[in-house]
């Protein structure tokens, strides 16, 4: 199993898909990296030579922010928004959608699946004992 940037790449997948297992690399970026390294995107990850893996590691580590560095940068950006008290920072603090989505409906997962539906308003009569 190849190991790139501290992530074990699955053997049974094509390399363009396997690179997307690294946080910060998606489909288009993986294709760009493979074109730069001169590797066929549809080769299986298990069939890569050590030289090809070395080229991939070198390109990824030199040019792109991935895994821990990327996560740390995202966390610091959100922390900055919270510290300055911006609207987006307040939304992050409250755990609500940040990018202008509606919240009257459609935020079930964020608000904890609170359902406030009302029935017909009339309770059934209790049965006599």
Report what the structure shows:
By secondary structure, this protein is mainly α. It has two domains: 62 residues, Helicase, Ruva Protein, domain 3; 44 residues, 30s ribosomal protein s13, domain 2 (Irregular). The protein is built from six helices and two strands; from the N terminus they run ββαααααα. α2 packs across α3. The termini are far apart. The model has no long low-confidence stretch (mean pLDDT 88).
Comma- or semicolon-separated keywords:
Helicase, Ruva Protein, domain 3, 30s ribosomal protein s13, domain 2, 129 residues, mainly alpha
List the helices and strands and how they pair.
Blueprint: E1 3-4, E2 7-8, H1 15-18, H2 27-37, H3 50-63, H4 67-84, H5 87-94, H6 108-111
Antiparallel strand pairs: 1-2
Helix pairs in contact: 2-3, 4-5
* Separate helix tally: 6
| pLDDT averaged over residues | 88
Largest sheet: 2 strands, antiparallel
Strand-pairing-aware structural class: mainly alpha
Number of discrete domains = 2
Just name the CATH architecture of the largest domain: Orthogonal Bundle
Name of the CATH class of the largest domain: Mainly Alpha
Q: Helix-strand pattern, N to C?
A: EEHHHHHH
User: Which stretches are low in confidence, meaning pLDDT under 50 for 5 or more residues running?
Assistant: none
What overall geometry do the principal axes of the alpha carbons give? elongated
The percent of residues in helical segments reads 40-55%
Care to count the β-strands? 2
- Reported by name, the CATH topology of the largest domain is Helicase, Ruva Protein, domain 3
Biggest sheet: strand arrangement: 1-2
Radius of gyration: 24 Å
